[in-house]
Every structure is written in structure tokens, then in C-alpha cells.
Amino acid sequence: MIRLANKHDAAQITDIYRPYIENTSISFETIVPSKEEMETRIERILTNNPWLVFEENNIILGYAYASKHRERAAYKWAVDVSVYVRQDHRCKGIGKRLYTALLSVLRLQGYCNVYAGICLPNESSVGIHENFGFNKIAHYNKVGYKFGQWHDVGWWEFFLEQHNSEPSDPLPISNIEQYKIFSVLSQS
User: Fold this and answer.
1) What whole-number distance in Å separates Cα of residue 86 and Cα of residue 40?
2) What is the residue-wise DSSP string for 49-83?
3) Residue 151 belongs to what domain range?
4) In angstroms, rounded to a whole number, what is the distance separating the alpha carbons of residues 13 and 46?
5) At residue 91, does pLDDT exceed 80?
6) Looking at the domain assignment, is residue 171 inside a domain?
7) Is residue 177 part of a domain?
8) What was the pLDDT predicted at 161?
């Protein structure tokens, strides 16, 4: 089942995120956030954007969320996205289901552009993004330093909607009728 996250999911979300921080350069964070910090992050994202979890038998197996791309007002139609899946449940389609749901909710909200930054090399992340139609648009050389080496980051872009000359402002997730969100999530 895919549903909107809440702050009570913070401990399980942190457990999923932990190995990505401690054992990989997929995340450029170097310190695992506390449960309280993760609660704050979830609540902050959910003020405007979706944070979804994939849950099975009350266990969260993965999550995906969208966050503001940049602060300036002219960027308000763009978001950055991320997806993380529990290490022992990777390659089971959970990430694809989460992204299908996430992109559908972002369309409901009225966003136009979606961006993903990927530490390279990372064939699985590049693969899932390109599977959804994301295209590589930038490559930052040696932009992050972790585990004693420099890492490149590629940026991928996806257009959710056509760009018209007078776009409506994207709606906060709280302004989307719950039945519409439930409908999108139940189809994913």
C-alpha cells in the first residue's frame, strides 16, 4: 500500500535511509538524522509537497518525496524528487510504484518540471529515472567529497505538464481533495 507519510513514520524512514548515508555516496549526508530531525523533515515537506511511503504489513519498505527545487519565486513550478527503498527489498518494483504515485500527485498539484540529482556512477538510479522518461541535462564534476574521494553528480529532468504562458500556481498537497490523492495512490 502507498500512502502519505506522517511524523510517526520517522523511525522506519530513518532506518531505510541510514545505510545510504553510512555505506554509500548515494546521499551526500554524512550523519544519520535523528528520529526527531526526520519528523521535522517529513512535516516540513508535507506542508506543500508529497512524501509517500510504501507499506506492507505495517512495515515501511520504501519512500519517495518531492521538495522545492529552488527558493526564488520563478522556480515554483519545479520540484526535486528522491526515492529510497529498504536494502533487502530493492529490485522488487517498489521504487517504480512509489515514483508512479509521486509523479501522479505532482501532476494533480500542477507542477511542471521534476529534477533528480544522482551521485555517479549509480546504474539503478539512472535506470529508474530514465525508465520514467527523465533525461540527463547536466553533469557536475567532483562536486561532492565523501569517503575519501570526490564524486560527480548528474542531473535528470522530466516534464510533467506542457509549459503554457500563464500557468496556475501549484497547489499545496493540503489543498488537493483527499479522494483524488487516494485514487492516485490506489492505482499505483
Assistant:
1) 21
2) S-EEEEEETTEEEEEEEEEES-SSGGGTTEEEEEE
3) 2-166
4) 15
5) no
6) no
7) no
8) 86
What confidence score (pLDDT) does residue 188 get?
Answer: 74
Residues 6+ apart with CB under 8 A from 134: 114, 116, 156, 157, 158
For cell 483524488, what's the residue?
180
**For cell 555517479, what's the residue?**
120
Residue 7 lies in a domain: yes
Tens of pLDDT, residues 6-62 = 999 999 999 999 999 999 999 999 999 999 999 999 999 999 999 999 999 999 999
Higher pLDDT, residue 91 or 85? 85
- CATH number at 140 reads 3.40.630.30
Q: 76 in a domain, yes or no? A: yes
Torsion on CA atoms 16, 19, 20, 25, rounded to nearest 10: 180
CA distance 14 to 84: 11
Report the number of distinct structural domains present in the chain: 1
Tally Cβ neighbours within 10 Å of residue 81.
Answer: 25
Nearest C-alpha neighbor of 173 from the set 82, 61, 52, 75: 52
Confidence of residue 186 (pLDDT cuts 50, 70, 90): confident
